[in-house]
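Pipeline run #58 for the internal structure catalog. This entry was flagged by the ingest filter as a single-chain record with no existing model, so it goes straight to prediction. Upstream metadata was stripped on purpose; only the residue string is passed forward. Reviewer on rotation: M.T. Logging verbosity set to normal.
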Amino acid sequence: MRIDVLIYPGFDELDAIAPFEVLKKAAAGGADFAVRLVSGSPCDEVVAANGLRVRPEAVLDPSAPPELVLVPGGGWVDRAAAGARAEVERGEVPALLAELYRAGSTIAAVCTGTMLVAAAGLLRGRPAVTHHGAIDDLRAAGATVVRARVVDAGRLITAGGVTSGLDLALWLVERFAGPAAAVSVEARLEYERRGTVWRAPGAT
């Protein structure tokens, strides 16, 4: 299973790197995951919200869509010059996410990464959650807000603010590799999952 973690200028480091590590540890433990950090367009380096400089391994390609795309947030609430809000205004990432979803990718979002998914037109009338500071924006985008740590609506999975990325990633491990794999990663990270995973009836 190929899992691409999307990074873009101003992404929040913890939103992306925490799930990346969880998923890589699951792969090291035997889960059938191939996990990469990717950009939406060709570039040598991406600068995150707190100055971390990251070299993406590849570029997202809708003609060869990954099974799962994970979208971090960053910069939405404080209206930063770079981050999720800036990417919504540019429009390229939302358009890419819409194309990937049509091509069959499951999309998971952490924190205000959910707002990029909403801007792609994928959350109208669908259950979702985001950082508490963007809940009104998410509702205005047409989503049905569910107050849970992780909201699993099948091929669209969203999570609350920042540290909920750990819980989202562990849920992804459980969903796609089984509960034993998730418990094993928890033990290695010395982290116990928090909050509720709300799953839509019939979500697969």
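catalog note: The longest helix spans residues 13-28.
catalog note: The mean pLDDT is 97.
status: ready for reviewer M.T.
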